[in-house]
Amino acid sequence: MAAQVGVSDWAGRRVLVTGASSGIGAALARDLAGHGAIVGMCARRTELLDEVLDDCRRHVPACQAWPVDLGELDALEDFVAQVERELGGIDTLVNNAAAVLSGTTDGTPWADVERLVRTNYLSPVRLTLAALPAMRARGAGQIAVVSSMAARMATPGESAYAASKAALSAWFESLAAELWDSPISVHLVYPALIEVESDADGDDALADSPNAAKHIPAPVCARAIRRQLERGDLELYVPTPVKQGVVMRMNDPEASIQMMADWFRSNPQH
Ligand SMILES: NC(=O)c1ccc[n+]([C@@H]2O[C@H](COP(=O)([O-])OP(=O)(O)OC[C@H]3O[C@@H](n4cnc5c(N)ncnc54)[C@H](OP(=O)(O)O)[C@@H]3O)[C@@H](O)[C@H]2O)c1
């Protein structure tokens, strides 16, 4: 069995977390800084980002934040160069930022579909392509990507979002295979039902909770991602049991789509 690259010590490790102004990204930035990582973070909402930066700097003063609209694809190479200069390099890149778009498939404006694909798919691809040469030159690196269960079981009422995440997963799986057995590894995260509106923390056992209807606090998800990166695991489902949905999708596609259709009909907000 080939080995992926894990992390034995976060102290001094330089990590760029995109989309760190709220939710999973903010929780992960705080968690990694709490373990000694030099966290670089970016997002558009600067006030929220500065709050996360302040928390991180209490642990590691060298943490930094940059206000960036990741949908501006042509600016991303310069952004990565700036991060490498100002952070001293990127040992772990966590592509976490994404936007959600709800609406029926034929009721979603084309401009919104394009914007979502740019932010959720093209942007992490461009960031990764910009970060890879320095990782190759150093002969080390981790590239993580926060996808979604929607990539594995497309959600009705979120077709553009699900498609952007499916494309993301496919691209990073190809990259993982190309980099397999190399000192640079790829790590995919498949969250579902993560609670990002509250600051509440929770027991780590929730990440393995068989009750998938229960929302998992963002800090629990963040810790699960950190441990995934420490182990060097290729994939992580949070909560773990949602992986059963992927098995069902493969074994009985009609039952899977029927389940999604029933859920869609009983959720009129879509
Ligand atoms: N929560 C869940 O249940 C769940 C389930 C499946 C997958 N996910 C995935 O988990 C990741 C984190 O999402 P979350 O749930 O934590 O939601 P969130 O709180 O809305 O976080 C999204 C982050 O992405 C940033 N972002 C979005 N568009 C951006 C842009 N154009 N430029 C720069 N930053 C941008 C946001 O920052 P600004 O708005 O400040 O720019 C924010 O920091 C996403 O990839 C999401 O698809 C979450």
Distance between the termini: 44 Å
Strand count, sense and barrel status of the largest sheet are: 7 strands, parallel
CATH topology: Rossmann fold
CATH architecture: 3-Layer(aba) Sandwich
Spatial strand arrangement across the major sheet: 3-2-1-4-5-6-9
Q: Helix count? A: 9
Question: How many domains make up the 3D coordinates?
Answer: 1
**Form type:** globular
Q: How are helices and strands ordered from N to C?
A: EHEHEHEHEHHEEEHEHH
> What is the tally of beta strands?
9
CATH class: Alpha Beta
Overall mean pLDDT score? 95
Bound molecules: NADP nicotinamide-adenine-dinucleotide phosphate
Helix/sheet category: alpha/beta
Uncertain runs are: none
Radius of gyration: 18 Å
User: CATH homologous superfamily?
Assistant: NAD(P)-binding Rossmann-like Domain
Helix content: 40-55%
Percent of residues in beta strands: 15-25%
Q: How do the strands and helices of this protein lay out in sequence?
A:
Elements: E1 14-18, H1 23-34, E2 38-43, H2 46-59, E3 64-67, H3 76-87, E4 92-95, H4 110-138, E5 141-146, H5 149-152, H6 159-179, E6 184-191, E7 194-195, E8 216-217, H7 218-231, E9 235-238, H8 243-251, H9 253-265
Parallel strand pairs: 1-2, 1-4, 2-3, 4-5, 5-6, 6-9, 7-8
Helix pairs in contact: 1-2, 1-7, 3-4, 4-6, 8-9
The structure holds NADP nicotinamide-adenine-dinucleotide phosphate.
Residues 19-25, 43-45, 68-71, 96-99, 119, 146, 148-149, 191-194, 196 line the site of NADP nicotinamide-adenine-dinucleotide phosphate (NAP).
